């Protein structure tokens, strides 16, 4: 006999499952082909749904792409950001961010923000503005941690904190791109790279 105690998925559950599958498919497509070459029919097909199901969830490609960037940010906050916030020490928080981001970037979806930032560079487009807003939020957060580390004298003085934060994020992104597929080394080398930007001894950095 069937298990009658098992609850049937609700309409909201099914809708969420459809939306998540479409977001994951779109994220893969954006990371591979970019916004300009993204084909919505292909996104729906690879997710296992019809184009009508996609348009039931998202009104157009721009709406879908912005939903993807929001979903990726929420995923990053859950898998990386919350652990950064739990670190009371600014240096530990910055290194946790670097290590966590390296692990996060092993997934296809992590490439979307970098790909879109390059594609929309210098353009006034809603998707580009959304990506830049996320980038600026990360730089601002790192700036605050660097300033706190300098106040605590755990990060040495040097160039303005914002300039160091920009270099930190640039080194973070560049390293994870260069080490794509190097799972044995990406986490440690990313942390050591950003430690050097902060003025710390990279050889003092190890994995937890």
UniProtKB/TrEMBL annotation:
Domain of life: Bacteria
A molecular function GO annotation: DNA binding
SUPFAM superfamilies tied to this protein: Homeodomain-like, Tetracyclin repressor-like, C-terminal domain
UniProt keyword list: DNA-binding, Transcription, Transcription regulation
DNA-binding region location: 39-58
Domain HTH tetR-type: 16-76
PROSITE patterns per record: HTH_TETR_2 (PS50977)
InterPro entries: Homeodomain-like_sf, HTH_TetR, Tet_transcr_reg_TetR-rel_C_sf
Stated name of the protein: AcrR family transcriptional regulator
Source species of the chain: Streptomyces netropsis (Streptoverticillium netropsis)
């Amino acid at each position: 006999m069937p298990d009658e105690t098992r609850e049937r998925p609700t309409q909201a559950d099914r809708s969420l499952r459809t939306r998540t599958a479409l977001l994951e498919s779109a994220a893969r497509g954006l990371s591979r082909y970019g916004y300009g070459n993204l084909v919505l029919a292909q996104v729906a097909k690879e997710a296992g749904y019809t184009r009508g199901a996609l348009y039931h969830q998202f009104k157009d490609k721009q709406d879908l792409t912005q939903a993807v960037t929001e979903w990726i940010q929420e995923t990053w906050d859950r898998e990386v950001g919350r652990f950064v916030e739990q670190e009371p020490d600014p240096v530990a928080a910055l290194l946790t961010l670097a290590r966590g981001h390296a692990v996060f970037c092993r997934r296809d979806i992590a490439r979307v923000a970098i790909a879109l930032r390059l594609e929309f560079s210098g353009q006034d487009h809603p998707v580009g503005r959304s990506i830049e807003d996320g980038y600026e939020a990360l730089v601002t957060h790192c700036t605050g941690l660097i300033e706190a580390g300098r106040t605590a004298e755990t990060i040495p003085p040097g160039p303005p904190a914002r300039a160091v934060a920009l270099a930190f994020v640039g080194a973070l992104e560049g390293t994870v791109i260069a080490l794509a597929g190097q799972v044995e080394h990406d986490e440690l080398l990313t942390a050591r790279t950003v430690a050097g930007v902060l003025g710390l001894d990279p050889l003092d950095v190890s994995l937890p």
